[in-house]
Amino acid sequence: MSVSSTKDPLDGISGELASSGGGAFKATLLFFMAIACYNVAELVVMVLSTFRRWKGLYFWSLLLSGCAGVLPYTLGFIMKFFTQAPSNLSVTILSIGWWVMVTGQAVVLYSRLHLVICDERILQRVLYMIIANVFLLHVPTTVLTYGSNAVGEEQPAWVIGYNIMEKVQMTGFTIQEIVLSGLYMWETVLMLRICLVRENQKIMYQLIWINIAMLVMDLILLGLEYAS
């Protein structure tokens, strides 16, 4: 949800698609939004067909981060950029989706963390970090998002504040991701030292590489954010 000038094809969180964007730009946006929706559908099918019992933190965090996270986040931007829907409505839908998507994905990682870490103190501190980031990062960003979409003389000030907070929240959530992925990788490396079964080692190496890939993508997004 980056903010750019009105000369750009995408006016950002405070605007709409400018007419200069062209059909190709709009088609590209819709293409990636369609991929996001397809991934959610695939995730739902895999979750419902894989889990024998439809309960537990892992099950619900996986399901909700997609259905109540990615889907409304995508729908909110479609309403904002491609329809005449009221700004507050589209911002509300995409903000709800953003909350559930970002924190939901963190809860997915947290829900499996006890499989590699037995220290309750570490697990508790990770949970406190996730909860704290909801109030420190989600809340102020959402307030600034609404302010940036308000009509009035103070809107430019809200946009400036949003630009700053956008970088802060992305940095904060990236650090959160680094902590979670770092814990997985650290504990997996320790397990590799004592595990002699080749199949188990293969799974552990896959876990390490998956977390490395996630960190690389997070750092790329963070770099793009700071590059505006």
Automatic annotation (TrEMBL):
Identify the domain of life. Answer: Eukaryota
Q: Keywords of this protein's UniProt record, alphabetized?
A: Membrane, Transmembrane, Transmembrane helix
Per the UniProt record, which residue ranges are transmembrane? 29-51, 58-79, 91-110, 122-139, 178-196, 208-227
Can you give the residue ranges of the DUF7703 domain? Answer: 28-226
Name recorded for this polypeptide: DUF7703 domain-containing protein
Q: Which organism is it from?
A: Aspergillus niger (strain ATCC 1015 / CBS 113.46 / FGSC A1144 / LSHB Ac4 / NCTC 3858a / NRRL 328 / USDA 3528.7)
Q: What is the lineage of its organism?
A: Eukaryota, Fungi, Dikarya, Ascomycota, Pezizomycotina
